[in-house]
Amino acid sequence: APAGRLHWHATCCPDGHVATLHDRPMTAVQVAILAAGKGTRMKSALPKVLHRLAGKSLLGHVVDAAEALAPPRIAVVYGHGGEAVPNAFAGSRMSFVIQEPQLGTGHAVQQALPALAEDGITLVLYGDVPLIAADTLEKVCAAAEDALCVLTVDLADPTGYGRIVRDAKGNVTAIVEQKDADEATKTIREINTGIIALPSQWLRGWLAQLRNDNAQGEYYLTDIIGMAAAEGKTIRTVQPHTEWEVMGVNSRDQLAQLERVHQRAIADALMKAGVTLADPARIDVRGTLDCAPDVTIDVGCVFEGLVRIGSGAEIGPYCVIKDTEIAAGARIAAYSHCEGAKVGASAKIGPFARLRPGADLAEDVHVGNFVEIKAATLGTGSKANHLAYIGDAEIGRNVNVGAGTITCNYDGANKFKTIIEDDVFIGSDTQLVAPVRVGRGATLGAGTTLTKDAPPGELTISRAKQLTISGWKRPVKVAKK
Ligand code: UD1
Ligand code: CA
Question: Which segments of 178-308 does DSSP mark as H helices, in order?
C-alpha cells in the first residue's frame, strides 16, 4: 500500500460511485507500543519483548506489523532491562521513551505523547502481542478516523481481561477491568485486546483526565472508553481473524505455544503453495522460506534468514539451512548444515555435509558425508564424497576430490587460494598447501602433500617410497627386577 494510505475497504460516496480508501489520503497513523511491563513470569534477565518467536524478537514482530501502516512516528515505551530494548533496535527511526515507575497502561501512553504528533490517529499496540496481523491494524485504523476503535475478541474464558460493556442498543459504554468488575460484568465474554486507535487530540485530552482510584491504583488507558461514551463520541469495535493474533506472551509456555501457532501458519502457507511437508508440525522457519512447487521437506528442518528452494528439490530430515539458494531437483540429505551457500540444480548434498558461506556448487555436484566447504566454487559434475575440507578454492568441472582431502588454506596469519582445474583426480588423504594450482586433467597420488603447482595431465605424488624391512621384530616387554 502506498505510504499513508489504506486500500482494504470500499466506502460508498453520496453521489453513488464507489471509492476505495486507496483513492484518498488516509489520516496519518502514529503508533505507541507499550513494552514497559516487567514480564516477571518469564524469569529472565532479558526483557520479555526481546525474547524471540520464529527467530525475531516479540517487539520486532509488533514493529513489523506497525511498519505496514507506514506510520510517520513510532514510539516504544520501555521500562526494564536498562537500555537493552533501545539497543536491540539501534539505528531504527523509532523513539524510545522510558516509563519509570510503571503506573499503568494510561500512564505508559502519557509517557509516549512527547514523541508523537498532536494530530492524526494514534494506534496503541502491546510489545508482547507478536502475532497481530497488519491487515487487522489497517481495519482498526480505518475505523478510527472519526471514532475510538477497540480491537475486541470473544473468549470462552475471559478471566483476567478488561470486559467490553455495552448498553441495550449494543453501543460500547465502558471497559471494566477484571479486578473492578462485579459478577454480572464478569460474565461478559467480549474482552479488550488492548489494541485501540483514536484521533490523537481526543487521546491527549482524555489522558490528562485519568485518575487511579481503582482496584489496582493504576492509570488505566481503558478509562478513556467511558470518557468517549460520556462525550457522545462514536466507539467502534473490530475483531481479528483469529484469537492468536491478540494473545500476549507472559510466560515461556505461552511463548512456545505462539511459536507453534505461527509455525503451523507458515507450514499451511507452504503446503498451499505446493510444498510437501512430511509433518507440518515439525518444521521451523525463522525468516523467509521461498519454495517453488513440488519441493519436499522432511521432518525437523530449521530454515533461517532467506532460503530459496527450486522445484522438485528435496530436503532430508534434520537439516539446518540459512541464507541459502537451492536449485531445482537438488537433494540435501539428512543432517546437513548449509549457510550462505548456493546449491546447483540436481546436486546431491549430505548426509552430514556442511556448506559454509561462499560455498557455490554448480549443477550435479556431489558433496558427501563429513565434507566441509567454505568460500569455494565447484564446477558442474565435481564430487567430494567423503571427509574433506575445501576452503578458499576454485574447483573446475568433473573433478574428483578423494576422501580425506584438505586444502591447507591458512598459515596461521593469512589465507591462500587453491585452484583445481577441470577433470582433475585428487587421491585420498591429500593436502593442498595453498597457494597452489593443480593443472587440468592432473592426478594427485593418494597421500600427497602438494606444496608446488601440479602440472596438467600428469601424475604428481609426494609420498616416500614403500619399504619392507625383512626380519624386523616387534619390541618385547622388559621384565622388572
Ligand atoms: C490490559 C488492559 C485490559 C486488557 C488486557 C489485554 C488496561 C488497564 N487493561 O490489562 O483491559 O484486557 O490488557 O491483555 O489497559 N504496560 C506498560 N506500562 C505499564 C503497564 C503496562 O508498558 O505501566 C504494558 C505491558 O508491558 C503490556 C501492556 O502494557 O505490554 C499491557 O499490560 P498488562 O499488565 O499485561 O495488561 P493489563 O493491565 O493486565
Ligand atoms: Ca496482560
Answer: 183-186, 200-207, 223-230, 252-272
The Cα 472–Cα 19 span in angstroms is 100
- Can you give the pLDDT at residue 4? 32
Residues with CB under 6 A from ligand 1: 34-37, 77, 99, 102-105, 107-108, 126-128, 161-162, 175, 177, 191-194, 220-222, 248
How far is the C-alpha of 218 from the C-alpha of 370, rounded, in Å? 60
Write phi, then psi, for 299 (nearest 5 degrees).
-75, 155
Q: Rounded to 5 degrees, what are φ and ψ at 429?
A: 55, 45
Report the C-alpha dihedral over residues 77, 82, 86, 87, rounded to 10 degrees. Answer: -170
Ligand 1 nearest-atom number relative to CA 106: 15
Residue 272, Cβ density class (10 Å: 0-12 exposed, 13-18 middle, ≥19 buried):
exposed
CB distance 35 to 49 below 8 Å: yes
Q: Calculate the CA 426 to chain-centre distance.
A: 41
Q: What is the pLDDT of residues 257-289, one digit of tens each?
A: 999 999 999 999 999 999 999 999 999 999 999
Question: In whole angstroms, what is the distance from residue 173 CA to residue 2 CA?
Answer: 35
Tens of pLDDT, residue by residue over 450-481, are 999 999 999 999 988 899 999 999 999 999 88
Distance from C-alpha of 365 to C-alpha of 388, rounded to nearest angstrom: 15
Residue 386 catalytic? Answer: yes
Query: Which residues keep their CB under 5 angstroms from ion ligand 2?
Result: 248
pLDDT tens readout for residues 304-332: 999 999 999 999 999 999 999 999 999 99
CA distance 131 to 311: 30
- Separation of 149 CA from ligand 2 center, angstroms? 19
376-407 pLDDT, tens digit per residue, is: 999 999 999 999 999 999 999 999 999 999 99
Interval 327-359: pLDDT, tens:
999 999 999 999 999 999 999 999 999 999 999
**25: confidence class by pLDDT, cuts 50, 70, 90:** low
Between helix 223-230 and helix 200-207 the angle, nearest 10°, is: 110
Query: Using CA positions, which residue lies closest to atom 34 of ligand 1?
Result: 37
Measured CA to CA, the distance from residue 72 to residue 93 in angstroms comes to: 10
In angstroms, rounded to a whole number, what is the distance separating the alpha carbons of residues 274 and 280?
13
Instruction: Please report which confidence band the pLDDT of residue 295 belongs to, taking 50, 70 and 90 as the band edges.
Output: very high
Ligand that lies nearest to the alpha carbon of residue 126, given by its number in the listed order: 1
Grid coordinates belonging to 286: 525463522
Helix (H) or strand (E) holding 173: strand 172-176
Beta strand 52-53 pairing with 148-154: unpaired
Q: What share of the chain in percent tops pLDDT 90?
A: 92
**248 CA distance to ligand 2 middle (Å):** 6
